[in-house]
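S1.2 Input.
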Amino acid sequence: MQDLMTIKDASIWASKYIGKNVTSSNISYLIQYGRIPRNGDNGNAFVNRYDLEEYYNLHYETKENRWKKQLGNDLNWNLSFSEYKESETTKHVHRLHSYKGKFIPQLVEYFLDRHTDNFKNKSFFNTGDIILDPFCGSGTTLVQASELNLHSIGVDVSAFNAFISNVKVGKYDINDVKNTSDIITQNFKKFQKEKTNVNFENRLLDELKIFNSKFFPSPEFKYKVRQKKINEKLYGKQKSDEFLKIYYKLIDNYKISLKQKKNDSFIDKWFLQVVRDEIDFVFKQIKLIKNSETKTILALVLSRTVRSCRATTHADLATLKEPVTTTYYCKKHGKVCKPLFSILSWWQRYTQDTIKRVIQFDKLRADTFQKCLVGDSRTINIVQELEKKYPEFGKLIKNNKIDGIFSSPPYVGLINYHEQHAYAYDLFGFEKKEDLEIGPLSKGQGLEARKSYIKGISDVLNNCKQFLKQDYNVFLVANDKHGLYPQIAELSNMKIVNEYKRPVLNRVEKDRSAYAEIIFHMKKK
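S1.3 Output.
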């Protein structure tokens, strides 16, 4: 018995053993996902010291050492920001909406703030400076510039990206947002009373709980899978097929509509009919809102809700394959899971979360200008566009000019920036401009695609230079595995004065292999 430890004691022992803080949650994770066996019943979980020791002997090596072996000793681990918890890298408004390919705020802050260290031996920007992000994405640069008392202007060819960015840096009457969202929620619940999907889903959850407890007990099932005592693929398929009899019986009893009649658009294809009905209802409610700022931020809440309610498996949220209309074996959770049949809980959760995050950001932001324009950074006249919509900001840039750029350009042939938010384009009717994307996924990573990319990025820099001060600083974050940025700098009449190679730890893709990107510091030649 002396070798059995409570989860808390195991975390203390493990912390000493590997020389790094191991929390009780870390130990619980190892048990839950079958990395180590659990001893005792649910109320009294114990860990065998030898099981834990064996696990760490086989699997533990500092990530820094592992990655440097693969990526080289020039990797700047200080720029991994590994000391920050996930809640800190997605702080306040940075998590108002999911966005694939964004950088973490600490990276932006590192280069925009005034601190110096062994790697950044001088500061590049001062309070009141103006920062440009010509590939604005979801607005991380704009938000961090506001925290640091800097002005910032973003440009993005995607109307939805600009929408996300401007919502994040917008200012709101929080009481109006709360009251309006409460009214919509009340009306939503009344709407649901006329439907059967809520009662159906509750009954389905009850049946799933009984079935999963019997055939997929946690964590024993996952441990047996890892020990190869169970063929997960065959067993999961067998049992999920078995549950379908229960599922279809409930579908018939509650007369649930699954597939939509049309299949013309993303929102037609990827949402169950009962979910689509709720989406349309909430959107109609939002259209009736008179306060434009409240309407805008609640539209973003709806977009975030819609994204979370697509008819797909939990394992395929980032890479949609085929719409799922039935229960299924979920490898991620090690049990039979279901698609969503209502958006209410997500709508309520995201509304509350959004309000909380906006309040947090309001306490940190400075009284500076932050705006994102929809446009092509290769051709846009930033001053003219600002003078039309935000004349005071336009005048500031015209008189003072922009101090520098901090941006993460798209990577060659990696992401379709319009397609990742296709649901929002369908719902809100934003104009798509996929043909203006630089380095689109559709063109791949071949020689012609790279040549086009080099020209596209250099065209952006050459166009933006007319708005920059003479002694500008440009920081571009890129995974330059094709070695394109020296050519881009040359065509832009710039010189690369420094390169910071950093590990990228917080990736949403399934591929968690060692990965690095370079921050290119460029100046006038």
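S1.4 Remarks. The two ends are 71 Å apart (CA to CA).
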